[in-house]
Amino acid sequence: MTEVLQVQDVTKTYMMGSVPVDALRGVSFSIQKGELVSILGPSGSGKSTLLNLIGALDRPTSGTLFIEGIDVSTLSDNRLAEMRKQVGFVFQFFNLIGRLDAQGNVDLPLMISGMPRRKRKERVLEALRKVGLAERTTHKSSELSGGERQRVAVARALVNEPSFLLMDEPTGNLDSKTAQEMMNLVVELNDELRVTVIIVTHDQEVANRTRRTLRMRDGRIVEDRVN
Length: 227
What we know:
Helix content: 25-40%
Number of strands: 10
CATH class: Alpha Beta
Largest sheet: 6 strands, mixed
Distance between the termini: 19 Å
């Protein structure tokens, strides 16, 4: 199988005034194309720091991190920004633009990339179909439920055909029924489309729905198990 992500002995140290704080302490793992993986841990475990590194939002203090075989820890700021296009981000609070409808929100990454309008429209409608919103394309955020807004966010993450989806507490702003429906969608995308998904969460129930769990504590991965 093809590795989409490889993390090798990664550390991350922040300075709190003059005091160094070790957020990550030698993290190593790899993720293969088509996997559905959760990174599970409580607040302060290092999972948010790891998310920033996986998403090419930051660089490690030491160690190497490869996305599709490219070591992001050595890239310039411009090349690092380019690498972010390889990652489909889904955030807890949706981050949709209220004045745009579902189609407009999903179109944004393609418009920014300079893709021709006709090709963009086809891609956007296909992404919305994949998440079950083919009939809601012209509805604005205020006209959508929380679950539908999160589906728009998933479609927006999918539309650029990224190497993997990186989901930050994707059910954290949803009620339990809608959260279960969201996880059903994630499992379906992984099963049927072989979309590679990495979910960062503190919720054991969310982790239980994934195929593999990396459990974090005190800046280290303390367990790597198949569910």
